[in-house]
């Protein structure tokens, strides 16, 4: 038997289901083996099997990294220990004093990290709300642009293609956190981005049982630099977690279909609910937010739910409901959050893969038992 390349000559669904298959000519194992070995025997001085030490390269990690690169249509994929270590890796590249332009409405943990970088005098961040803001702020002083689309938790889309026009003009890196949409809905590199990153803890892993991150680069050169940096700093994904991620990704396509279908059904219901004043949903994906009429009711509303779980995070098979004000976005100062619409009446939902009728019924009974 021979090892077949994991390249994308087939439809994405086929590719996903087959991750790791045809990769082990010695045993023919369909399921990727977990290589726990931290070190590898050298045949003789000056020779290597290609594997020396697991921080540098690991056969299980290689399978997931090459799959990530194919999925996002990039040159190089890297698997990291968490989404935040993926963000950290990407932001290890720029000279001290660099200016970064970023989406204002983004994951609270990324905001907290950027604040930390700023406090240490490493970079300066400028936050903008929309495409016009990016057009205004990207200049030759900018080192990189960082966006989340749809934004989090307000769920508005910004055009990667439009922003890429300016980043190309000034020759600055465009970095996209694609956690919410996944490559099944949006491939940022195809739209002009230079680097895509993920919290693979979310949809890619998909089962609320794994913390992982991913970085995929359009250019081989930047990818190799980041791989060097990852090997140097060490936040690689462990072999067992690589295996969990491979297993999760095999069903990504099926799951995304259901997440999206459920989100659309929940959105349709919430729009008719007298307890809800605003629903935010970009029309695709499994994430939505809504504003409740009376924010005093939030505590009781959350307590009444029996299928939705009140928890932070997203992208797993179980439906979750999050209160960004005290959970995911608590590190953004109150006045700042509220100034751009992240108000204390806002709840965020990640629809799982349950039956939509049950999800709607759960929300309905919880609203109706209020007061
Ligand atoms: C969760 C999340 C992160 C951070 O990822 P971890 O895996 O929790 O470290 C980054 N970006 C977005 C959009 C997220 O949802």
From TrEMBL:
Annotated CDD domains: CGS_like
Record flagged with keyword DNA damage: no
Gene3D superfamilies cross-referenced by the UniProt entry: Aspartate Aminotransferase, domain 1, Type I PLP-dependent aspartate aminotransferase-like (Major domain)
Record-given protein name: Cystathionine gamma-synthase
Required cofactor(s): pyridoxal 5'-phosphate
Similarity field: Belongs to the trans-sulfuration enzymes family.
GO cellular component, one term: cytoplasm
GO molecular function: carbon-sulfur lyase activity; pyridoxal phosphate binding
GO terms under biological process: transsulfuration
Pfam families the record matches: Cys_Met_Meta_PP
N6-(pyridoxal phosphate)lysine found at: 202
Entry superkingdom: Bacteria
Keywords, comma-separated and alphabetical: Pyridoxal phosphate
């Amino acid at each position: 038997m021979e090892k077949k390349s994991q390249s994308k000559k087939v439809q994405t669904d086929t590719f996903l289901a087959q991750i790791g298959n045809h990769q082990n000519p010695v045993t023919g194992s369909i399921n990727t083996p977990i290589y726990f070995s931290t070190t590898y025997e050298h045949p003789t001085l000056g020779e290597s099997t290609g594997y020396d030490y697991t921080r540098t390269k690991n056969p299980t990690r290689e399978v997931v990294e090459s799959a990530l690169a194919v999925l996002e249509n990039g040159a190089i994929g890297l698997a990291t220990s968490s989404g935040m270590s993926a963000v950290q890796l990407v932001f290890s590249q720029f000279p001290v004093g660099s200016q970064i332009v970023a989406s204002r409405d983004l994951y609270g943990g990324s905001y907290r990290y950027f604040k930390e970088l700023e406090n240490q005098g490493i970079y300066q961040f400028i936050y903008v709300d929309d495409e016009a803001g990016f057009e205004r702020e990207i200049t030759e002083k900018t080192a990189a642009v960082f966006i989340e689309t749809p934004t989090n938790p307000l769920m508005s889309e910004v055009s990667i293609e439009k922003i890429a026009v300016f980043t190309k003009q000034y020759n600055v890196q465009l970095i996209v956190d694609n956690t919410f949409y996944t490559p099944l809905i949006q491939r940022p590199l195809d739209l002009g981005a230079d680097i895509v990153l993920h919290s693979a803890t979310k949809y890619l892993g998909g089962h609320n049982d794994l913390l992982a991150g991913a970085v995929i680069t359009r250019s081989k050169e930047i990818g190799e630099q980041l791989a060097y940096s990852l090997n140097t700093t060490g936040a690689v994904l462990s072999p067992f977690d690589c295996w969990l991620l491979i297993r999760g990704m095999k069903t990504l396509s099926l799951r995304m279909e259901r997440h999206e279908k459920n989100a659309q059904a929940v959105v349709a219901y919430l729009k008719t609910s007298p307890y809800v004043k605003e629903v935010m949903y970009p029309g695709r994906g499994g994430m939505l937010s809504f504003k409740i009429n009376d924010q005093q009711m939030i505590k009781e509303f959350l307590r009444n739910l029996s299928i939705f779980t009140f928890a932070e995070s997203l992208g797993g098979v179980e439906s979750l409901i999050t209160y960004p004000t005290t959970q995911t976005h608590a590190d953004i100062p109150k006045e700042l959050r509220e100034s751009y619409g992240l108000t204390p009446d806002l709840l965020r939902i990640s629809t799982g893969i349950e039956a939509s009728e049950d999800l709607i019924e759960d929300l309905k009974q919880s609203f109706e038992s209020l007061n």
